[in-house]
Amino acid sequence: MNQKIIIAIDGYSSSGKSTLAKAISKKFKYKYIDSGSLYRTIALIAIRKKIFDSDLWNIRNFIPILKEMSLKFKWNQKSNQIDIFLNGENIQQKIRSEQVENKVSLIAQIPEIREKLTLMQRNIGKNKGIVIDGRDIGNYVFPKSELKIFMKGSIEIRSYRRYLDLKKRGEEVSYEEVRKNLIHRDIMDISRNISPLKKSVDSIEIDNTFLSIEEQLNLIFKFIKNKRKK
User: What is the number of other CB atoms lying within 10 angstroms of the CB of residue 198?
Assistant: First the structure.
C-alpha cells in the first residue's frame, strides 16, 4: 500500500531544489511547497516599506509592520503549488526579482520570522503528501520526514543556472554579480545561528554538477517508491 510521506529537499541556492521538487510533486501528485517563497514574501514587504533604507532597521520596527499586512496562501491546482497574496495582490512573480533575492538571507536570520513561518509550514504538511524544499526542512521544520534529500553543486554551475534564469525574466545582471551574490548567500545560510543550512545525517546527498535533471529524477524516484511501500 502506497502511504503518503513528507519529502524534504534542502540545499544550496540555485542547486535545482525547486525543479526537482516540482517534478516529484507532479509525478506522485503531491502538493509542492516552496519554503523560500515565504521568506521572499517577507523580504518584499521590507523592501516596499523601505525598511532596508533606514539606519533604524531592527526587528522591533519590522514585526509591527508585518502584523498590519494581509497575507494569504491559496492552493493553485493548475500549477500544483501555493500562490501568495499580499493585501489581495498575487505576488508570486514579484518575489522572484534579484532585488528580493539579495535581501532574503537577511530576513531568514530573524528568529521571530523563522518561528512564525516554521509553524505555518508544519500546519500545511500535517496530512503529509507534500514535497517541500528549503534550507532547514529536513533538520528543523520536518525532522521526521520520511525522505530527506540534500542538493549541492559547484558555485560555477549554480551561478550560471541562476544567471540564465534571471536573463529569461528580463533582469539586467552580469554573471559575476550573480556569482558574488550566491557566494554571499551560501556564507549567510551556513553561518546563521538559527537553523543554518546543513546536511542531516539521514539525508541522501546529490551533487548535480554533472547530472541532468532526468538522471536526478530517475535516482530519486527509486528512493521515493521504496519509502512509500513501507
Answer: 16
